[in-house]
Amino acid sequence: MAAPWVSLRLVAPMLNGTRGIHRLGGAVVPEGNQKKERTMLQFLTNHFYDVEALRGYLFQREMSKVHLKNRSFTWLEEQHGPYSAGAFFILKQGGAVKFRDKEWIRPDKYGHFSPEFWNFREVPVEAVDASDCEINYEGLDNLLLLKELQSLSLQRCPHVDDWCLSRLYPLADSLQELSLAGCPRVSERGLACLHHLQNLRRLDISDLPAVSNPGLTQILVEEMLPNCQVVGVDWAEGLKLGPEEQPQDTASPVPA
Amino acid sequence: MIRRVLPHGLGRGLLTRRPGTRRGGFSLDWDGKVSEIKKKIKSILPGTPCDVLPDTSHLPPEHSDVVIVGGGVLGLSVAYWLKKLENRQGGMQVLVVERDHTYSQASTGLSVGGICQQFSLPENIQLSLFSASFLRNINEYLAVTDAPPLDLQFNPSGYLLLASEKDAAAMESNVKVQKQEGAKVCLMSPDQLRNKFPWINTEGVALASYGMENEGWFDPWCLLHGLRQKLASMGVSFCQGEVTRFVTSSQCMLTTDDEMVTLKSIHEVHVKMDHSLEYQPVECAIVINAAGAWSAQIAALAGIGKGPPGTLQGTKLPVEPRKRSLSPPLQEEEPDPANLEVDHDFFQEKVWPHLALRVPAFETLKVQTAWAGYYDYNTFDQNGVVGPHPLVVNMYFATGFSGHGLQQAPGVGRAVAEMILEGSFQTIDLSPFLFNRFYLGEKTQENNIM
Known about the structure:
The structure holds two protein chains of two kinds. By secondary structure, chain A is of the alpha/beta class. Chain A has helices at about 5, 35-45, 50-70, 75-80, 80-95, 140-145, 160-165, 190, 215-225, and strands spanning about 95-100, 105, 125-130, 150-155, 175-180, 200-205, 230. Helices cover about 30% and strands about 10% of the residues of chain A. Chain A starts with a helix and ends in a 25-residue tail after the last strand. Chain B is built from 14 helices and 15 strands. In chain B, strands 1, 2, 8, 9, 10, 11, 14 and 15 form an eight-stranded mixed beta sheet that branches. The longest helix of chain B has 18 residues, at about 405-420. The relative contact order of chain B is 0.16. Chain A: Interacts with incompletely assembled mitochondrial NADH:ubiquinone oxidoreductase complex (complex I).
């Protein structure tokens, strides 16, 4: 049993995304002890200015941590070239980079990574795996330095939303693979502005909680990008059988 | 009866009790007494309605540092930035007076909610860019403890403007200005346009400009709700009422050229309640006119425009309500702004032919729903009025944006707050939008009006 003062967590840890002060309004229903703890916090916040101010301050501090992570590294461009600058940004965030004809460079569990990529001035970055990173709209400044990027994975990034997707169009010439699986803030409106990426061959849009109608969205995205293989959603998802229809025809797909 | 009235009726109870019940313990009405004591204590304690004095909870406070007339997105934005940029927490008391708390005729709620950077004036472009970054980070700016995050439902589609041969040069220079200010706009030739959007009929189009980022539309109600919530948490008072009178005091002063000039300052605002003659005089230091389509009436109350025409005293605020439903009509055929009913024939006769010509797929178009709203139309040059009035020294304007008020609200709110708190525009210089231009006759014309 944790000590009582420890259990009074004022701001949720970043693992749950920055739902810090918003979590009480969120859709997830907690059970038992957690619920009591949260209503106690709510009670305190509503009755004491100090608690409210403290929570507001902690939230602003978390936000500024995210901003710090996404600060601009474009000044590195003149010294080390755009590819190294962009790679440094990704590696610092905790993602992995793959230069052309080289192996994947990943940071270890302490966040350290090998400095060999500083020598790759002219070698373009082919693939970036930014899963679970805290990239947001400002951080994309640094990502867009990598002009010849072919594969980008933004799986489960908590701050990637529709605004960020509308910013990916400079990579239209080279980007062939994009994965947005599990991003909580991406909705169908953001997916609609991927129409710039005409060279895309593989798009992963599975498990997007903010998309209201996944099956329909899959069809629309496939129509928008005719040369692209869209993965992740079964088009019949969300469809219901009518009362008189029976699943007799084995050829037609049965909704999951 | 005597038992009930006295709080400590123990002695009396003993006296008036019948002898037979002495052995059975207290037969006082203990529960009744306790509940009465509780009721009396509750009525005396703060935080509960006290029945002794009349209820004034619907009236605005008697003093307020700043009174903002108009609770639409511009008024709320000014209130937000005033509270955010104030030097001390709780330093400014702000009151927002809104006549209609359902916002049924307010331009904010009836707006399409589009945001676009394709203007010709650099100030307009900067305002739009700032608003886009405000909306992008809205959950940081308008964060309230324990409230769910706001979902603006922003659709980042971008605006596409088409130009014929004669307008192509103007469009090119506009795009150059936009790119200089940092907007991401690109020019497209008719071939590129056909490639990108095969469903457009490019006949007669010489050039097109397409906004790639930060353009689209969002839900204005969500922004309004978010602002109201945040302001309530910051300590801004709201009042539902109509401003009927300004009580001003005047001072005659000499200018450096030895001319007599009468400077007025508003020191009281009379706010009248709905459906009654009751009004509350609110003592104030600064009044902000953010009344949208009805700003001219508020300005007239302060005596702006009462004087011989052609003088500074006689210059009225040239903002009037214009009704808009789907697209702007021609100059000569303005619809009657008396009500907000939609003229469906207008769409069939005037708008649909152009749409069907440009996009052949729209030939079979049928209107499902339509609504109309007011533009706070600036008849002088269709751009906003921001900043103080030269003669009524404590009235500040934030109105007259003629259709792009919603997308410029965050930037304008910040500019007005800076003007009040610092005395000059700090971030975006909106001096071309000051009131003086109506008297001096200098138009700040915006060429791309939507």
